[in-house]
Amino acid sequence: MPGLRKRGEEIRLFILENITGKRNIAALTSEKFNISLPAVYKHFDRLVCENQITKKNGQYILQSKQCRYTYKIKDIISEDTVWEKDIKKHFINVPKNVWNIWIYGFLEIFNNAIEHSRGKKINVVINENRLFTTMTISDDGVGIFNNIKKGLKLTDEKDALLELAKGKRTTDKTRHSGQGIFFTSKIFDVFYIASNGLVYGIIPEKNSMVKTSKAQSSTLVYMRLANNNDKILKSVFDKFSTEIPGDFDKTVVPVQLVNSSDLVSRSQARRVLSGLELFKEVVLDFSGIEYIGQAFADEIFRVFNNFNPNTTITAHNANDDVTYMINRAINTKL
């Protein structure tokens, strides 16, 4: 019967979506749908038979299929040939909008590894289950943060994270716009880059994060996307446009990526501002920042504005102390 079939599908989808939680998923399902535990376990048995879940160490977990590919960079013709030959078959059954996100993300990151890693090989690992797909692309090269540090003449690899977050920052202006990693980091549910002991991660609509890891060389990029995600690639591009759709003239910069515990100097402010004159609108996200100094605020909100009247800078997520210093700089008349 259609009604019973639909209810059964709802129950099994609920199990899949909540199976990784800490609570007892069987009891949770029983309570949610007002059915007995034996009835719940019949749904578990069906999901096991369909290879959607499996039992490990007494617990049910999502069943995943993993595929690995290794390429020698000297033998790669282009990133699109790799997509056509090996990668696209993993996304044949996803909705068109999800397909568009994966092809964009793969081509951008794989091309970056080919042209910038200076390594010998690239590894791709794809994990698929009913709910989401993950992909890691790694190489054995010099490391992305190290490459940006040298290319932009920075003093520390942590400073490269800030440049990466801005967009339009590239070590090869003749061949790249600096938009690839910026937009790729915004379109996936989870995105992070690990290189040379640093991890830069982004969960869109939430804060970016930086942490250390044991990895000491090369670059690994991780991307995760729900198979039924309703995000549209064009809509993500348009979020960073002020007037003409698709025109990349707006950016959001997490100030917490500045490699310093105290934001008080003009030199620190100039590191934040470097390259921002390329945009019409800049949002500085002050999440996690407790205090900024007068010189730091003045350089950003008064001096920069005097020299770059076509770029508007606004502050988001600033606490009362930070807001006070910003307003003081804006209202200063010299």
- Structural class comes to alpha+beta
Ends: how far apart?
78 Å
The whole-angstrom Rg is 23 Å
Largest sheet: 7 strands, antiparallel
Uncertain segments are: none
**Oligomeric description of these chains:** single chain
Order the strands across the largest sheet as they lie in space: 3-4-5-9-6-7-8
Summed over residues and divided by their number, the pLDDT gives a mean of 88
What portion of residues is helical? Answer: 40-55%
Total number of beta strands: 12
User: How many helical elements?
Assistant: 12
SSE sequence, one letter per element: HHHEEEHHEEHHHEEEEHEHEHEH
Shape: globular
Strand content: 15-25%
Give structural notes:
The protein is an alpha+beta fold and 334 residues long. 40% of the residues lie in helices and 21% in strands. The chain has 12 helices and 12 strands. It has helices spanning 2-18, 25-33, 37-49, 79-87, 96-116, 144-151, 157-166, 180-187, 233-239, 266-273, 294-307, 320-330, and strands at 53-56, 59-62, 65-72, 121-128, 132-139, 190-195, 198-202, 208-212, 219-226, 250-254, 281-285, 312-316. Helix 11 (294-307) links the parallel strand 11 (281-285) and strand 12.
Overview in brief:
By secondary structure, the chain is α+β, with helices and mostly antiparallel strands.
Provide the descriptors you would attach to this structure in a database record.
334 residues; alpha+beta; 21% strand
Q: Any chance you could write out the topology, listing elements then pairs?
A:
Blueprint: H1 2-18, H2 25-33, H3 37-49, E1 53-56, E2 59-62, E3 65-72, H4 79-87, H5 96-116, E4 121-128, E5 132-139, H6 144-151, H7 157-166, H8 180-187, E6 190-195, E7 198-202, E8 208-212, E9 219-226, H9 233-239, E10 250-254, H10 266-273, E11 281-285, H11 294-307, E12 312-316, H12 320-330
Parallel strand pairs: 10-11, 11-12
Antiparallel strand pairs: 1-2, 3-4, 4-5, 5-9, 6-7, 6-9, 7-8
